[in-house]
Structure formats: structure tokens, C-alpha cells
Amino acid sequence: MGSLSEQRDMSTSSLPGVIADSDDGLVFACILDGKGGAERIGWKELNAWRPEQGPLWVHLDSGTETTHRWLEETAELSEISRRILLEEETRPRVLTTDDGLLAILRGVNLNAGADPDDMVALRICTGSSRLITIRYRPVMTPRDMLSDLIDKRCGATSVPELFVRLTERLTERMNTVVVELDEALDEVEEDLEERDFSALRGQLTTVRQTAVGMRRYIGPQRDALARIHIERPPWLNREMEILLRESADKLQRYIEDLDAARDRAIVIRDEISNRLAEGMNHRMYALSLIAGIFLPLGFLTGLLGVNVGGMPGVQSTLGFWVTCIMLGLVLVGEVYLFRRLKWF
């Protein structure tokens, strides 16, 4: 899965100077201009923000006391909303509260040295004019979207659109990993004739672990996005709802692809096991034939080697050669018999 590593490197280096992680909890904050661009702000402007200034997007790191204090005092979120947003271990879900729409979504882990199936959580609280995202570990999707707003000036124009694009981007990144799983399985099937089964079994184990790990979160995330149209907030228009349902449909397709990849991995593993068993059976069969051929010969030589009186041919100079000829005839007779029985 080398291409995924390359994508991690590209994602990390695509925003030079745009985001500088700080220990004050504020990863970045910006005010949308309604035309696809945004203006970055700091804590001072953030604390003084009012809805009439424009749509606000705040991306925070949950690991600082400043973040906790801002959510409670300035953002004025309820205790239950803060607890949901700051939970360290959580599964994808969406719920509506007095503070707005709360969403816990997962994205593939594209951080350097990380496994894609170790999906990172992005906690979202959104309303009509403000979007708050919170991370525990770095997430590449917000960085890319900020680049669209600040550098390319082709980002979202409103908070609902920002939320939908964020969901779409998280979903689209999963496709890369799903495709790479299929390609990895194709490579394993092509390499079956190379007989390096130990390496292939290791690759299959990696594919299965990745598929199972991703499905663990993609399933609940699909259900969460599908639930939004049931409890659609008033600020989310029909068009945005349709786009969210499209993301849910994509997640359903990814689930089906992951299930198919897992089943293919099981089939390939069984094929490898069958080939290993077949090779072992062939070797054991050959050893059994050899043992069957030499068992009568061994019996005869053992019988003739008994040191008792009366053994025929002991006094004859031709006894040894007669014995060898007799053993040769027995060997030829055994080979003929085995061939008639189609044992080889």
C-alpha cells in the first residue's frame, strides 16, 4: 500500500505555513466571506465574534484546558454537549441538541506511520452560523479544506455547506484505502504461483485486519448520516440533505466492498491452505510409496541376516549374488504391482 503512504506525505506537505499547531488549543479559526474564501483569526477575534460578522469555523485541539474553558464560557455549550464532544473513546453518531447538530465522524488515518484502519475521530458541533470541530489526533481533512478557503478561495460559502463538504471529504478519503485493499488482494492472487506462501499469508492478515477495522466505524457512520434526514435541522436545506444521503450511500458501497475484500481474503487463505495441504500430501504419499517398496526388501534382508544355523547359501560363493538377484526381482514385482494398482 505504498500509494497511501505517498498520500500521507502529500497531505502533510500540501499546506506550508497554513496551519501551525499550537499548545493553546486553537488549531485554526476563520470567518467565511460567503464567496468561497475565508479570513483567519486568532483567540482575540474569536472571543469577540458575533454571527453578523459571517459564518465561523473553529478547529480545536481537545488536549488543552483552554479548549475546555472556551467551550464552556465563550461557546456556551451545555454540559452534555461538551461531554460528547470531548469524549476520548467514541463511535460515529449524530444527534440533535439545543446547541445544534452534534456529529462524531471518523476518517482514515493518513498521519505518517499510522495504520489506515486506526480511524481518527472528528467531533463536530454545528448550527446555522457556526461550526466547531474538535480533534484528539491530527486530521488531514480540515487542513485540506482550510487550504481551499485560504489559498484557493474555492471553499464553502456557508456553515451548512461547510459541514456537508467536511462529511464528503472524510468519506472520499476512505475510497483510497478500499481500492488499495482490492489491489493488494489482486497482487496476492497473482503471486499464488510463486509458492512463497508465508509472505502471502502475512499480506492477507494485513488486508483482513484493515477491512475489519474500517468496517467497525464505517457501518455506524453510514447509519449516523442516514439518520440526519430523519431529524433534519431547519438550517439544513433539501440540497444539502441529498448530498449527505449520497455520502451515506457511498459508505454503504464501501461496506460492501470491505465485506467482499474480507471474503476474498478468506477464500485466498483457504486456497493457500489447500495448496500447502496438497503439497504435504504429495510428499507424504511419496514417502509412503518408498516405505512400501523397501518394507519387503528390508524384511528379507533382515531374515537372511539372522545368525542361526541352517541358513541356505552360507557355504556357497554365489549366495550373495543369488540374494541380490532375488531382491531385484522382488523390487521389479513391487513396481509392477504398484503401477497396476495406479498408486503412481
From TrEMBL:
Record key words, sorted: Cell inner membrane, Cell membrane, Ion transport, Membrane, Transmembrane, Transmembrane helix, Transport, Zinc
Q: Which InterPro entries match?
A: CorA_cytoplasmic_dom (IPR045861), CorA_TM1_TM2 (IPR045863), MgTranspt_CorA/ZnTranspt_ZntB (IPR002523)
Q: Which residues cross the membrane?
A: 284-306, 318-338
Cited CDD domains = ZntB-like_1
Gene Ontology cellular-component terms listed: plasma membrane
Per the UniProt record, one Pfam family is CorA
State its location(s): Cell membrane
Q: Which SUPFAM superfamilies match?
A: CorA soluble domain-like, Magnesium transport protein CorA, transmembrane region
Q: How does it sit in the membrane?
A: Multi-pass membrane protein
| Gene Ontology terms for molecular function | cobalt ion binding; cobalt ion transmembrane transporter activity; magnesium ion binding; magnesium ion transmembrane transporter activity
Family the entry assigns:
Belongs to the CorA metal ion transporter (MIT) (TC 1.A.35) family.
**Protein name, entry field:** Zinc transport protein ZntB
